[in-house]
Design brief:
The protein is of the alpha+beta class. Helices cover 17% and strands 21% of the residues. The protein starts with 16 loop residues before the first helix and ends in a 13-residue tail after the last helix.
């Protein structure tokens, strides 16, 4: 039997959706699953205690009108390596994770650095619902009703200086609470970054919930980034640090494999991953629910379908080289 070290694990070797869901549905039984996810009042939380439900939320004009991915799929099929590399690990292993109290440190090229309590940063009155597509580099996608607020106005509160060309984000580093960090799959803590114009773009949000409720742990509670025109790994979860920088920051997947994961990571069906095509995608929930391996593929769209809004950010760039 071949045993691989954690550092040798590649994303393509992680349990695929078809195997995971077929096994899961067999164990749970389809009748109970349908009742739990479709009958009002009977749906149980995917994992963990009941979550706060938000009040009336403003509807964003940026939202897509595409059919939503089910709450069940959104909360049980996740990439969150801090809680394991199998798609089902985050929901299972993060059950006891407590995301409160929570604070975010702000540093670097800004006039108002400091440590801010999450409740001081995120006011309920500023929240809105945004229905965004989420496309992952493994060529699967979802449509999720996020609850969040635009990132740009929040960053302006810290008064970034003229030297701030980029903004770096980091995830909580706590192996006792996030046992996936005990493995060397990535160099912890997880880190991501955006160019300032990307961060300030009105499509970029900080999300604190989905489906009208607080974020489940497995989806990045209590605070995550959502950048809908980029591959999902750019949307860093459980953020504890914001740092304004003059130089482009290092990012976790680029540090892991620079030839496979670039800094920009814009969804681009014309640029393949070295080990698979990015030209098509599978929408989670498409096709016969009991035959996930037969889910049809869709044509992928440039910038994940948000080209009209964001293409101007990259005018003059060679997106094959600056991927």
């Amino acid at each position: 039997m071949l045993i691989k070290r954690p550092a040798d694990i590649r994303p393509s070797e992680i349990t695929d959706r078809s195997t995971y869901l077929a096994r899961r549905r067999f164990i749970l039984g389809t009748g109970a699953l349908i009742a739990a996810t479709t009958i009002p009042g009977l749906r149980k939380e995917a994992h963990g205690a009941s979550r706060q439900k938000f009040g009336q939320l403003a509807k964003s004009p940026f939202s897509t009108n595409e059919e939503l991915t089910s709450y069940e799929d959104v909360t049980t099929y996740n990439n969150f390596y801090e809680f394991g590399t199998d798609k089902g690990d985050p929901a299972r292993i993060s059950e006891e994770f407590n995301p409160r109290p929570w604070s975010v440190s702000v540093s670097g090229e800004c006039a108002k650095p400091g440590t801010y309590d999450l409740d001081d940063l995120v006011k309920p009155a500023a929240l809105e619902e945004r229905i965004y597509r989420l496309r992952c580099v493994e060529a699967w996608s979802m449509v999720i009703p996020w609850v969040g607020l635009p990132l740009g106005p929040l960053l302006k509160r810290f008064e970034p200086t003229g030297n701030a060309k980029y903004v770096e984000f980091r995830t909580l580093h706590d192996p006792a609470r996030m046992p996936g960090q005990r493995r060397t799959v990535l160099k912890w803590p997880y880190r991501e970054g955006l160019r300032m114009d990307e961060a300030m773009h009105p499509l970029t949000i900080f999300a604190v919930g989905l489906y009208g409720e607080e974020l489940p742990n497995q989806n990045g509670a209590p605070l995550r980034l959502v950048v809908p025109w980029k591959y999902g790994f750019k949307s860093i979860k459980s953020i504890v640090s914001i740092r304004f920088t003059q130089r482009r920051p290092q990012t976790s997947w680029s540090m892991r494999a620079a030839s496979e994961y670039g800094f920009y990571s814009n969804v681009n069906p014309q640029v393949d991953h070295p080990r698979w095509s990015q030209a098509k995608e599978r929408r989670i929930g498409d096709g016969p629910s009991l035959l996930p391996f037969r889910v049809p593929k869709r044509e992928a769209r440039m910038f994940n379908g948000y080209a009209e809004q964001v293409a101007s950010l990259y005018r003059g760039m060679d997106l094959r080289k600056q991927f």
